[in-house]
Amino acid sequence: MTLSRRGAIAWLGGAALAPLAGAPAFAQDRRRPGRDENVPAQAAGGVPVTGRALPGLDAFDGVVTQILHAHGVPGAAIAVAHEGKLKLARGYGYADLQARTPMRPDTYVALASVSKVLTAQTILKLVEDGKVKLTDRVFSWFRDLPLPPGHREDPRLSEITVQMCLHHTGGWDRKVSGDPSGWGPRIRTALKLDAPPTPLQMIRYMKGVPLDFAPGTKQAYSNFGFVLLGAIVSAVTRQPYPEAVRALALQPMGAPGLRLDGDPPRYNPGEAKRYVLGTEHPVPGGNSRMVMASGGWQASCVDMARVMTAIDGSRTGRPFLSPPMLQAMLEPAPGIARPSPDHWMGLGWDAVQSFPDAGGGKRYSWGKDGGLAGIETYVERLAIGANYVLLINSSPQRNGEDGALALVKPRLVDFIRQERAWPDGDLFSSFR
């Protein structure tokens, strides 16, 4: 049975999960030792639990396993780091329901739009190195791409900058004209291609599509803006996009294990299968290489924790980007109204939030979500110095419905914020 959003929230607030409600629930088992499982443990409803948690932190296991069991969620992988040290790395439930393969901390999960974090960090590194400017006009790299037959170019394309693509203010609004990331068949027909479109072929086609609004005047989430950024990475470095990201970002971050979705679309070895919530048969794996820069990467929760703790410098000793570039990453889009005075979209981040600190300055949090058929993901750096990664191999049955992410994420954030005495130790060395 699949519950509606209202029914799910009501269930969580009812008697079945009453012991998990509120702050005391997370403290009730603090004196229990942590587990180091080579064989999956069984929790609520027989949900397997794998991985490691430092002493006391395994109290959160009951929260996740009861949610997964109650709502038919196949699996989740969670990593939590504090001050650059990995404190919890768990797999819950199943990566493959048919094979009964447990989810593990080193299971690969499709990141969906969390992939944009990698593209954004690579572009910002090129800006820092003086090879790209935030004010550069993106279509200047693609002047030689001919328009599709019978199409005319929107003159406003020449106004779109790198910064606008990072801030989602480039002029594309998928609520108005649709999301070009799903236009593969249309592009293939228009350009008379014998194979699925490449990023450059997508850009060629989009040169003949009118914008939905004047660049820089509105903020509307755009996958295509990050396809452009990925193509710029390749053009500037003269390397294929994946190799450039690995060399400029993943290797320096100490996270070389990330990889791209299978091409042609398929499941890679060691990858979690993807499920629509409430079903038992996986949806097709992979993702179009046309949109790899906006949603094509895969990672384990541990490797994404390495990425997040490199971005803020908590694990590596200094942030991945220089202080001025890190500050630029956190700035809101100029001329765009914010949802609130202390909450906005950053460069490559869906949610940046500022908090006053004791010294009169500001502390920041930043986060990014992702979703595609069979996947929900979220990564966040909290202002208290903790990073977490949440990867779920299911998605809601209907667009706009809340899935498992809406159930697990608030509980996880509460758990992290309520921790006052983090146990000593660092589990990063336990994972390759």
Q: Can you offer a commentary on this structure?
A:
The chain has 432 residues and is of the alpha+beta class. It has two domains: 283 residues, 3-Layer(aba) Sandwich (Beta-lactamase), CATH 3.40.710.10; 124 residues, Beta-lactamase (3-Layer(aba) Sandwich), CATH 3.40.710.10. The chain is built from 14 helices and 15 strands. The strands form three sheets. Strands 1, 2, 3, 4, 5, 10, 11, 12, 13 and 14 form a ten-stranded antiparallel beta sheet that branches. Strand 13 and strand 14 form a beta hairpin. The longest helix is centred in the middle third of the chain and has 15 residues.
Task: Tell me the layout of helices and strands.
Elements: H1 5-13, H2 24-27, E1 36-42, E2 48-53, H3 61-71, E3 75-82, E4 85-96, E5 101-102, E6 109-110, H4 115-128, H5 162-167, H6 174-177, H7 184-190, H8 199-206, H9 223-237, H10 241-253, E7 259-260, E8 275-276, H11 292-295, E9 297-299, H12 301-311, H13 323-329, E10 343-344, E11 351-356, E12 362-372, E13 375-381, E14 386-392, E15 394-395, H14 404-418
Parallel strand pairs: 8-15
Antiparallel strand pairs: 1-2, 2-4, 3-4, 3-14, 4-5, 6-9, 7-9, 10-11, 11-12, 12-13, 13-14
What is the structure about, briefly put?
This protein is an alpha+beta fold and 432 residues long. The chain has helices spanning 5-13, 24-27, 61-71, 115-128, 162-167, 174-177, 184-190, 199-206, 223-237, 241-253, 292-295, 301-311, 323-329, 404-418, and strands at residues 36-42, 48-53, 75-82, 85-96, 101-102, 109-110, 259-260, 275-276, 297-299, 343-344, 351-356, 362-372, 375-381, 386-392, 394-395.
